[in-house]
Design a protein that fits this description.
- The structure holds two protein chains of two kinds.
- Helix content of chain A is 63%, strand content 9%.
- Chain A has two domains: 343 residues, ABC transporter transmembrane region fold (Up-down Bundle); 243 residues, Rossmann fold, CATH 3.40.50.300.
- Chain A has a six-stranded mixed β-sheet with strand order 6-7-8-3-9-10, with helices on both faces. In chain A, strands 2-1-4-5 form a four-stranded antiparallel β-sheet, with helices on one face.
- By secondary structure, chain A is of the alpha/beta class.
- Chain B folds into two domains: 318 residues, ABC transporter type 1, transmembrane domain (ABC transporter transmembrane region fold, Up-down Bundle), CATH 1.20.1560.10; 243 residues, 3-Layer(aba) Sandwich (Rossmann fold), CATH 3.40.50.300.
- In chain B, strands 6-7-8-3-9-10 form a six-stranded mixed β-sheet, with helices on both faces.
- In chain B, helix 8 runs antiparallel to helix 10 and helix 8 runs parallel beside helix 11.
- The chains are: A alpha/beta, B alpha/beta.
Chain lengths: 614, 604
């Protein structure tokens, strides 16, 4: 009683390819590479692999044993019972015991095989996901700007799933190899000629497999690329849902999505056709082999070269072999998808450009940090430098305002000062230490940036302010108070414990900015950099925030990117940035006095009001 | 300061689909994707034919033995050859049937699933903003990607083969009963525990896979968050904590998958034990029957082989049922999206068209509150004449942004109505409303494409010349020319290669090209430098002369230039009038706002 079916996860269809861009071009032997991928998994999880393979061997052996039990029962129980008209109860119990015993052991084998394979698969998925997401956190901002979120999701989920897909059918295939070896040996013992004829099935299987891999691989690669694109479009489109809605572009977005979904559908149907041809081909090869063996066998029997019994034996053994061949086919069928998925995750893991760190730390002292910016040069695009030769210094505890028109390079400057990016030339030093020499995490101990667009996590207010640091609630409240956020936080359902939803969707822009500010303040940074961080806050509230910043300013060096005169008025010095270079620096009064461009920029509201009243 | 309440996130929640039963899921699924029904009868016939392939070789072997090798007159070669050829033809036919069946199944299910995927995607966009926000983007993405993929597996290798298996099982039962009803009963009794436990396992599996699919959403959410917030994670050096959060999502997914696998494996292995019992039962009972009835050894042994015919499909069937749970749960999650009411319903063909030209705006006793929240706006009634420029001011949390959301029908009022040219916005056809009313939000989302492509969101067929003309009119040409590749500049993910101010400029150009009759600006230039902001302000004034504009403003410079200022405080309109008049009303809310504005910008 051969178990004629594999489980669905042991014989998945072709319709499951996912994943990412087209960097992964299939080349070389997919089969060899597929085994290499499995090799990684076996080396990583040898214990559970051994267990599930043992389970599978047990299952294979007991499948054979089942036939033996039936034979034994026939010879020792059924036939004697009918001949003698009586039978001992003990023998009947033995029959029951043998069948049930074999069945239970077989069940144990199934459990070990399938659960083992599942655990191995899930563990490998977890290993790779951990590695890939660590890489996401390690790779620089510049890499992230080139890789859409949807694609990264696809790498971490679908690629990983695809890569380790063949683990499910692996133990089954290996276990049945045992079955196959036994069967082949018995065939050779029975009759060498017929056995060799029967074994022609194997080269036929290899050819069928090669044809399948060659036809299916490019389709799998394409399908996986499309899946990543679908994920990208979905993520971006849902992210921009409000724009889509307010401009009434639902239909256009759906068309954009549907185009890719339809392409994926067509590729999957094509791949499915190949799979649909491969499965019955593989199943029928041993069957055809049996028929040929029968013909050859009968011929040999008539010439007296062999016995009828041996014909039956070889034919029967060949049918037994068909099962391992199919099980191995399910394994090989997974390879194209697996290889592409594995390459995609490897590409992420191999991506370079992660930031190099030193091992220095900034000594902790009570007063503000000293900031030196020397000869900074930076360009996203070689033709269009964003910053050229920017140099300035800020004495501890002082406040400097960076003022400049939209697109003059202010935000880039703040990114460089907090080492979100490294300069092409020049350096930024804090207390005399180049940022690139600092140990990982050392910069954040002393420096905090409040970005232009507040980013909140799907976490509580407390979690968003502390970011997991061990900070007592009183200090959290104090920071919220300084950021003028205590009032609305207190009014939230659960105060500090209120969850804010993904990216803080439940709050207004101004509220998000204030939580983001409190996040910086609670750390009591020695250098605080505000990148137009209160743009969405009411003037009145902003005035109060500024007052509290001024009150605590001696311990903190402050760099503010600002437009409002009240904010600029806080500064000991103003740096006027124009087109990526420092146009002038001095006190607000000095600049107003000598720089018409500066005056036009900061007095724009007044002038407008003035013109209006004329 | 007046405090504000966070918008409760409990809008109409996204339907998780958990309440939909298995059969119901399939029925609704097929209704959504009618392609699944295409040619089902033919495919079923092919499946039956293909399943006959399994018996070709056993019959051929048996015939060869009995009629060929052990024939009375010695081995008959020609008979064996003819038989072999016939069997080869049978194998070819059943293989072709199998190919045809599987490729037809791939074709119908992939077509059906593409339809499902596209419908679900579209429906997400049709949901109210509040509902969209109840689920993380990553989780939403999983519903239109990996969840749909899970269903495909079941449709190709599950559904139909299950039907065939049940058929085979019934046929085997009938044959068994003909052979011996007593032994057939024994077989059924041995399998009874399995059949009885199926429901239990199905329920357990459904729960277990429900957790698995949910964890996929959690996992994608956990990964996408730090990817989107990469700058914050880096500048606060919270990589370790972030990684812990991701790791725990990874581990929870692993644990959930393992748990589901445990149930799968146990329920599957039960089938094998039942088969062992059945085999033993048939032999033992057969022997015992031999003592009292006409049962013979040959019949008992024949019956033992019949049991195989029964066991095969039973195991296949239970296996499919087990695996089906994963697919059903995923299917349900996708259907769940479609079952979530799009409660801002497009009036459809009954919708009225707005006339082109400046619109007048009426708020009639409008009260608005988020679900389970206090009133954000209470009994607001006001009229804005066509062609006027109105600024709405008020403290953070006063409710001023709600005006923008109601005007653009991102939300509907709880009571009262918002009317444009006297037509309730709920009665206006969506396409007409979107064409006539455009919102420029504070954080204008940009797509990862060029500036041209982003601007064309406002007008799909805008030519480059038109776009440049628009930039000229808004006074943005200098900025545009300063970009590395002008209009062809790529803006990056969510527009993040540009600064916040620049993103606002692109959003403005987009709105300008859309050529609305009512323009709603919600702090649309808050991140732009003052000089440019004033220049844009003046340009907009010119451009909006023949239209209506409503500006939500916290920079009072905007209010100063508006025809009329509406002051909102704690959800009510407390003052209305031109800037000069309101500013003079000492002690008023507006006078207070204005004083602090002057304090900030007037100090030279």
């Amino acid at each position: 009683m051969v178990e004629v079916l594999g489980t669905t996860d042991e014989r998945r269809g072709a319709g499951q390819p996912r994943v990412s861009d087209d960097q992964a071009v299939l080349q070389g032997s997919t089969t060899r590479e597929g085994f290499a991928v499995l090799g990684h998994a076996v080396r990583r999880e040898p214990g559970i692999f051994a267990l599930s393979t043992l389970g599978s061997v047990l299952f294979a052996v007991l499948t054979v044993a089942d036939a033996w039990v039936l034979g034994w029962s026939t010879d020792h129980v059924v036939i004697p019972a009918f001949e003698d008209g009586e039978i001992g109860a003990g023998l009947l119990w033995a029959v029951l015991g043998l069948f049930v015993g074999v069945a239970i052991l077989r069940a144990v084998g199934i459990v070990a095989r399938r659960l083992g394979a599942g655990i191995m698969q899930y563990r490998m998925q977890a290993h790779t996901r951990r590695a890939v997401t660590r890489q996401y956190l390690a790779l620089p901002m510049e890499w992230h700007q080139r890789h859409p979120t949807g694609q990264l999701l696809s790498n971490a989920y679908s690629d990983v799933e695809a890569a380790w897909g063949p683990i499910a059918p692996l133990p089954m295939a290996l276990g049945t190899v045992v079955m196959m070896v036994i069967a082949v040996a018995q065939m050779l013992l029975a009759d060498v000629v017929m056995a060799l004829v029967g074994l022609l099935v194997f080269p036929a299987v290899v050819i069928a497999n090669l044809a399948y891999q060659r036809l299916a691989s490019p389709l799998m690669t394409r399908a996986q690329g499309l899946r990543a694109e679908i994920s990208e479009i979905a993520h971006e489109s849902f992210d921009g849902a409000m724009v889509v809605k307010t401009l009434g572009r639902e239909t256009e977005e759906t068309t954009r999505f549907a185009a890719k979904a339809d392409q994926l559908r067509d590729v999957n149907i094509k791949a499915g056709r190949i799979r649909a041809a491969f499965d019955p081909t593989l199943a029928s090869l041993p069957n055809v082999g049996v028929l040929v063996v029968l013909a050859v066998g009968v011929e040999r029997v008539t010439t007296g070269a062999t016995d009828p019994g041996d014909v039956v034996t070889v034919a029967y053994l060949l049918t037994i072999v068909s099962f391992p061949i199919r099980a191995i086919g399910w394994l090989l069928g997974e390879f194209p998808r697996s290889v592409v998925g594995f390459r995609r995750t490897e590409a992420v893991l191999a991506a370079t450009g992660s930031m190099e760190y030193g091992d220095r730390r900034i000594p902790a002292v009570e007063h503000g940090a000293r900031l030196d910016v020397a000869g900074l040069q930076y360009a996203y695009d070689a033709d269009a430098p964003l910053l050229t030769g920017v140099s300035f210094d800020v004495e501890p505890g002082r406040t400097v305002a960076v003022v400049g028109a939209t697109a003059s390079g202010k935000s880039t400057l703040t990114s460089l000062m907090t080492r979100l990016v490294d300069p092409d030339a020049g350096q930024v030093t804090i207390d005399g230490i180049d940022l690139r020499d600092l140990a990982p995490g050392a910069l954040a101990e002393s420096v905090a940036l409040v970005p232009q667009t507040a980013f909140l996590f799907d976490d509580t207010v407390r979690g968003n302010v502390t970011l997991g640091a061990d900070i007592p609630d009183e200090q959290v409240w104090a920071a919220l108070r300084d950021a003028q956020a205590d009032g609305f936080v207190a009014a939230l359902g659960d105060g500090l414990g209120t969850r804010l939803g993904e990216r803080g969707t439940s709050l207004s822009g101004g509220q998000r900015q204030r939580i983001s500010l409190a996040r910086a303040l609670v750390r009591r940074p020695r250098l605080l950099i505000l990148d137009d961080a209160t743009s969405a806050v009411d003037p009145e509230v902003e005035a109060r925030i500024l007052a509290s910043l001024r009150a605590g300013s001696s311990d903190t060096t402050l760099v503010v990117v600002a437009y409002r005169k009240a904010t600029i008025g806080l500064a000991d010095e103003v740096i006027h940035l124009d087109d990526g270079a420092i146009a002038d620096r001095g006190t607000h009064a000095e600049l107003l006095d000598r720089s018409p461009a500066y005056a036009r920029l900061v007095n724009a509201y007044e002038q407008a009001a003035h013109e209006e009243s004329k | 300061m007046s405090t504000t309440t966070a918008e409760p996130t409990s809008g109409t929640r996204m339907d998780s689909g958990e309440d939909i039963g298995a059969m119901d899921t399939i029925r609704r699924g097929v209704a959504i994707s009618p392609e699944l029904r295409d040619g089902l009868g033919t495919t079923l016939l092919l499946a039956v034919l293909a399943s006959c392939g399994q018996v070709v070789v056993p019959i051929a072997v048996q015939q060869t033995l009995d009629q060929g090798l052990n024939a009375p007159g010695g081995p008959r070669l020609s008979y064996v050859v003819w038989l072999g050829l016939a069997a080869a033809v049978a194998i070819a036919v059943t293989s072709v049937a199998s190919y045809a069946m599987t490729s037809r199944l791939f074709s119908t299910s992939e077509r059906g699933l593409a339809t499902l995927r596209i419908k679900a995607f579209r429906h997400v966009h049709d949901l109210p903003l509040l509902t969209q926000n109840t689920e993380r983007r990553g989780a939403l993405v999983s519903r239109v990607t990996s969840d749909v993929d899970q269903v495909s597996q079941f449709l190709v290798f599950g559904g139909l083969i299950f039907v065939v298996s049940v058929g085979q099982m019934l046929v085997a039962t009938v044959i068994m009963v003909i052979y011996s009803w007593q032994l057939a009963l024994v077989v059924w009794l041995c399998f009874a525990p399995l059949f009885l436990s199926i429901r239990y396992f199905q329920r357990k599996l459904s729960q277990a896979y429900g957790v698995v699919r949910h964890q996929v959403g959690v996992l994608l959410g956990a990964i996408s968050e730090p990817v989107v917030g990469a700058a914050v994670v880096r500048s606060y050096a919270v990589e370790d904590r972030t990684q812990q959060r991701i790791d725990s999502a990874i581990d929870e997914f692993k644990a959930a998958s393992t748990r589901a696998q445990r149930f799968t494996v146990v329920s599957f292995s039960l089938g094998g034990i039942s088969a062992g019992l059945a085999n033993a039962g048939v032999l033992v009972v057969g022997v015992l029957l031999g003592f009292t009835t006409d049962m013979t050894a040959g019949r008992v042994l024949a019956f033992a082989f019949l049991v195989t015919l029964f066991v095969g499909p039973v195991q296949m069937g239970t296996q499919i049922l087990t695996d089906a749970q994963n697919a059903i749960v995923s299917w349900r999650r996708v259907i769940g999206i479609l079952e979530t009411p799009a409660d801002l319903v497009d009036p459809g063909p009954d919708g009225q068209e707005l006339p082109r030209g400046p619109l007048d705006v009426t708020f009639a006793d409008v009260t608005f509150a988020y679900p389970d929240g206090p009133d954000v706006l209470s009994d607001v009634s006001m009229h804005i004449d066509a062609g006027t420029r109105v600024a709405i001011v008020g403290e953070t949390g006063s409710g001023k942004s709600t005006f923008a959301k109601l005007l653009t029908r991102l939300m509907d009022p709880r009571t009262g109505a918002v009317l444009l040219d006297g037509i309730d916005v709920r009665d206006i056809a969506q396409h007409s409303l979107r064409r006539s009313v455009v919102l420029v939000p504070q954080e204008g989302f940009l797509f990862d494409d060029t500036i041209t492509a982003n601007v064309r969101y406002g007008k799909l067929d805008a030519s480059e010349a038109e776009i440049l003309a628009s930039a000229d009119e808004l006074g943005l040409r200098d900025w545009l020319d300063g970009l590395p590749h002008g209009l062809a500049t790529k803006v990056g993910q969510r527009g993040e290669s540009l600064s916040a101010g620049e993103r606002q400029l692109v959003a403005l150009m987009r709105a300008h090209l859309a050529d609305p009759d009512l323009l709603v600006l919600d702090e649309a230039t808050s991140a732009v430098d003052p000089q440019l902001e004033m220049r844009i302000g003046r340009a907009l004034e010119r451009l909006m002369q023949s239209r209506t504009s409503v500006t939500i403003a916290h920079r009072l410079s905007t209010a100063e230039n508006a025809d009329e200022v509406v002051v909102v405080d704690r959800g009510r309109v407390v003052q209305r009038g031109p800037h000069a008049v309101l500013a003079a009303e000492s002690g008023s809310v507006y006078a207070g706002l204005h004083a602090s504005w002057v304090a900030q910008h007037g100090t030279a």
